[in-house]
Each structure stands twice: as structure tokens, then as C-alpha cells.
Amino acid sequence: MQIKVARLRETLEMVKPVVPRKPTLPVLKNVLIQNGQMFATDLESMVVLNLPTSDGACLLPFSDVMKLIQYIPGNDDLSIERKRGKLTMSWSDGSVTYDAEDPKTFPQVPELKPELQGTLEGDSLMEALSAAVTYCATEESRPVLTGVAVNLGDVIEIFAGDGFRMAYQALPQPFSGESKIIIPGKSVSLLAFLWNKLPREVDAAPGTLIDLITAKQKLDLMLSEGKAVIQIGRTKVLINLIQGSPPDWWAIIGKDPAPIKIEMLASEMERAVRRVQPVASNGNGAIRLVWDENTMNVSAKTESQEIKVAVGMLSAEGGPGKVAINGTYLTQYLQLKQGVITIGVKPDSAPVAFKHRSSPLVLIMPMKVEW
């Protein structure tokens, strides 16, 4: 088997997120090269990449090979040979030998019969999934909250939440059938990585360079036996979907509009929140928002400290009010946003809604504080 060092390096970089650092099975520290393809998996997701210059079958120890080829010129030809339990890699001025594992011990790609499949506009879908994954739970006590819920149908609905925050976005593109799936958060991050790194392949009619750049990239989605297979160009990603029933997201969002609606500049609110955040962190983490018709006071306090910053509002409907929100959640939401944000507040302990342009609707549970 022969391959250019640069080609092998580029392909290994693509599968890096899915090769586990501490694998549950020792064989997973390897990548499989077989029949002109490279395979890598963490048992939750598997990536299959074309590697047409390769033939035969072998397992490469991912970490060792990545470290090695950093220092070999990219235009060198790398020869790979598996023989008598040893794997030998040689190039123009050197060689290395590793213990070789049997390729048959690597998890194989399952044969799946499509239950539902279709093509989707990938740019908006990946943007929405990437935005939602930050709201997934990281604790495994409720597995359904560690993934992004996707409702497929006439409209694609995307939900994610950790019990304290949630995000929702609807994409006006239909799928070929109806289904509700939960994609693991790690798999969403993997898809986003590949989407940004892989060469763009678009079905664009001949035109200007601008037409080619702005053309939308498609992806193919197939569902079968609790798995999703996503095809991005010539790269395939197999994902074991999370089984179970997610929360009733619409019961959390609510159908009635918020009686209090505030509009203000995101950058000005972010500056105010960051000024008071250190004090909030020294206390219970709460940032207090108190507003009248024209001004919002952003504050935080502890037994020995108190800070308050006034921020002008663009508009306010529903009269004066107050609410306390976790400062870390608020800071994370506001960062890097420009332009107008809308804040919706309902009475009692209902979540506070935040909306910014075309980004997802975000709800954050309020905190109970002494006013």
C-alpha cells in the first residue's frame, strides 16, 4: 500500500475528533484502512472517508502515526506493509515498525436497510445544530438531554436543553417523511467539524465565482434501526441515535406570547453583564435585571459587595419589571452578538425568552433571589 504523506496527514486530521483518547476497546485507538477507505469510530459515531490511493487492509495506530508524519515531507511516498504481525511504514529516508493488529477486530460498518431517507440543505441545518448543541446537558443522568432533538417533517424543528436552558429553531425545509430523532451532542460536534473542514461539493450550474461560493451544499440523511447515516459529499458518518422520549419542549416554550417584551442592543447589555459578573460569581451567581420604561439596571450583590450598571433600552412593552438570571448563562448567550435582542418575560417562574435575529430562540430559567 502506497500513499502520499500529505494525503494521509489530511485524512487523519479529518477523523481526529472521533478517535477516542481513552478507548473502551483497545482496537479503537487505531484507524482502519480498507478497500480504498479510512474508518474511525468511538462506537457512538463512525466516519468513513475515501482514500482511493490505498489498497489492502491494515490498522494504523492513530496517535503514533500522527506524531510521526508531522516530520516527514508531505510530497514523500509512504509505503505501508502488514506482514507476520508487524506493520512497517517506510519513506524516502527512513522506516518504522509497529505491532500490527488484525483488521478484522475493528468494528465493521453495519448493513442497514433504509427506513427513511432524503436530501437536505446542509448549511442552515448544520448552523442550527451547532447553535443548539451548546445547550445540551453534559451529565449522563438523563441521556435524552445530552443530544439535540430533531423533528423531521414539513418543517424541521430543532430542540436542545439541559434542564436550566433550552434552544429551539424551526427550519422551513421539508423532509421526505416524519420522524423524531435525538443526535448525541458529541456527534453533532463531529458533524460540524467535518462540515467546516471538508471540501465543499455543491450542485451549482456554471456561473460566476460568486454563484459558486454562495451555492448551498446538500447532505443526505438516512435513518435505519436506531441509526442515522449522513452523507457529506463523499464522506459518510454513521451515528447511533439516543433512544428515549425527550421532554415536551412545547410545554416549556408555551404558546402564549410573553406579556413583557424588551428590545435592547446586545453589545451594550453584554458589557453591563460582564461588569457585574465578577460580583455575581462571588455570590449565588445571579444577575438581577430591573427595568422601567426607558432603562434597565443590571446588578449583582453579595453580603459585602454590590454593583449596578444602567443600560438604555430601545423599547419596552408591558410595564416595569424584574427578573434574576444565572450570570454565566446570560454571558454565554450574549457573547459575540451584535444588533438588537428581544427579551420576553412571563410571570411567576416561567423561563425568560431571548431572541436574536435568525439564531435560535433561547429560554433560561429565572433564579429566586431576595429583592
From TrEMBL:
What subcellular locations does the record give?
Answer: Cytoplasm
* Keywords linked to the UniProt accession: Cytoplasm, DNA replication, DNA-binding, DNA-directed DNA polymerase, Nucleotidyltransferase, Transferase
Q: Assign the protein's first listed, main location to one coarse class.
A: cytoplasm
Presence of keyword Transferase: yes
GO biological process terms held by the UniProt record: DNA strand elongation involved in DNA replication
Q: Which residues cross the membrane?
A: none
Q: Which GO terms describe its cellular component?
A: cytoplasm; DNA polymerase III complex
List, for all copies, the residue spans of the domain called DNA polymerase III beta sliding clamp central: 120-192
GO MF terms on file?
A: 3'-5' exonuclease activity; DNA binding; DNA-directed DNA polymerase activity
Family classification: Belongs to the beta sliding clamp family.
Q: What's the protein here called?
A: Putative DNA polymerase
Q: What is the lineage of its organism?
A: unclassified sequences, metagenomes, organismal metagenomes
